[in-house]
Amino acid sequence: RTQAEMAHTCRGTINLSTAHIDTEDSCNIVLSNGGRTYHLKANSEVERQRWVTALELAKAKAIRMRNNQSDDSGDEEPASQSDKSELHGPLKTLSSKLEDLSTCNELIAKHGAALQRSLSELENLRLPADSGEKIKAVNERATLFRITSNAMINACRDFLDLAESHSRKWQRLLQHEREQRIRLEETIEQLAKQHNSLERACRGAPGLASGTASISSTAKGSVQSAKGEASDEDEETEYFDAMEDAPAFITVTADPKHHRRSGSNLSGASEGHPEDWNLEDSVFESSNQSSYNESTGKDLLPRKRRRSRIPDKPNYSLNLWSIMKNCIGKELSKIPMPVNFNEPLSMLQRLTEDLEYHELLDKAVKCESSTEQMCFVAAFSVSSYSTTVHRTAKPFNPLLGETYELDRLEELGFRSLCEQVSHHPPAAAHHVYSRRGWTLWQDITISSKFRGKYLSIMPLGAIHLEFHSSGNHYVWRKVTSTVHNIIVGKLWIDQSGEIEIVNHKSKDKCQLKFTPYSYFSRDVPRKVTGVVSDADGKAHYVMSGTWDEKMECSKIVHSSHGSTSTEGKQKTVYQTLSPKVLWRKYPLPENAENMYFFSELALTLNEPEERVAPTDSRLRPDQRLMESGRWDEANVEKQRLEEKQRAVRRRREAEAVEALEEGKDYEGYVPLWFERKVDAVTGELICVYKGGYWEAKDKQDWSVCPDIF
């Protein structure tokens, strides 16, 4: 009882917290509290001891309750009292159980001593007549001991059950505190490095152009200029950020008119000629790119008019945490999700969106220099992330055997085909042929983990690009995408990691760095930097920009090695010509925020088309219902399709078991339009296009396609 309840109790009530419990003989119990005393009588000694044990436990609880109430009394606000009770409730309960164990332990010791005395008396007996009474007493003592032991065991069981029920919660809290501590340590370390770098910068740095300009770089790579007394080049000099965790470099934009005058003052590790950087003769063009709706090919037919909008996204509320709390640590592809978290496109269509800036590859075909061509390939690899900056919704997981075609051969010069070749793990094969002189293919497996606060999406697999005329074969891999604020706050996406693009014919390389967002960084958000170098490691171009807006390329005319930093990194200073924009993101369509932030190309990807395969994503009913705004029906249809796919998988598993019992080989699922081969470049087992799809489309012979919808 609480103190308030004790103040309004019935007449004759005894406060157990201050009561004294004693025994007179084998059946009587004495309860006393101040001037009030009660004499209780039990039917037997066993029953008396049960009452004594129960009263002792109740007294211990009353004492703890009184102490807790005195500790918690004060002028705290009700909200803080509630928070405190919620925080300390499990601890108090465990302490209570521990006190019960201590009380039982004392009783066991007490009865054990009495039992020992009884046994000693039994040993000293001489008269056989007394032996019966003594043996009876020993049996009663043993019974009491067993009862008390059972009480202790039950208390132990309650203690263990309660500890087990709270152990997972404690583990999560401990993990959270560890992550917070590690994050804080990293932040402090980062600030300390910045502080040390700023101190070194204040002491001076090696000069450029006869010592008229000095450059100091922080640990985060930001570069500032300290102007000299007299220099007409300082007014036109731009300084770009250096890459982190990569060979540190600094770029200085030089005016070609002053290049010959200032070039002799640079220790040239590599040299270029500014007259090669010609706007009219080079395939590098200005930032005034043609828009998506403009036709650039004279040999192509006029573009078909396609849809420019879809039904607005319904405003359905959904408790995200109620669904995601049971998904922590699991593969995202194995979690049943309602369409409320999706966008009305499949993963195959998202892969096809990489071709939105295909004209970069069309321009790369015209490059005579492999390093120039590498610049356009690098810009293309970055452009595939531009649509993700606002696209926080999840694409539909394709069904096994699902396909998607994008036939723009007559309009844009290319045709694309994707197929879902594996379901667990989810893998998609993609092949693109362009009559403008290039072929692209990839076999991508999506690995994703939900970590509670953020979602990591890790594309596994290489992307191959080959140019027909030159035979240049480029290979690169995608970086990790992270969706933040899964539980609380506004969702936002970040890209982080490095992309190494290798030309396996000429051995040219481009190392691109996607800088992760940091609250303490002074860098431009979503920043991408890199250097294009040849087979000998000589740098030719500097790439810079952001993955959501544009990429620029600067030709290197001189390079020199600066001082070695305290971290042991050799800084390279690149003097470059003015940067040129290779890629700039197309503006989003009007009302894009109500259409899932789709780009102009994305709006057309799910547009119904005739003559496509019956397995095409455009024909997927749940995706079509969602696009129409009928989300409840889409959820029902999605469950039906997933259950149908599970039934097919169970049938294949049964066939595999049957084949194993008969000693036969079971091949499993075989892709329709792709075949598995060992890639000669990477040595990996990938799915490559084996042909037959476009011929089947011309004949409208889809007899090999399974019924997946």
From TrEMBL:
Keywords: Coiled coil, Lipid transport, Lipid-binding, Membrane, Phosphoprotein, Transport. Gene3D superfamilies: 2.40.160.120, Pleckstrin-homology domain (PH domain)/Phosphotyrosine-binding domain (PTB). It is found in: Membrane. Its main location: membrane. It is a peripheral membrane protein. Residues 1-60 form the PH domain. Residues 174-201 form a coiled coil. Residues 64-89, 203-237, 254-309 are annotated as: Disordered. Pfam families: Oxysterol_BP (PF01237). GO terms for biological process: lipid transport. One of its GO terms (cellular component) is perinuclear endoplasmic reticulum. One of its GO terms (molecular function) is cholesterol binding. InterPro entries: OSBP_sf, Oxysterol-bd, Oxysterol-bd_CS, PH-like_dom_sf, PH_domain. Residues 211-225, 284-295 have a biased composition (Polar residues). Belongs to the OSBP family. This is Oxysterol-binding protein.
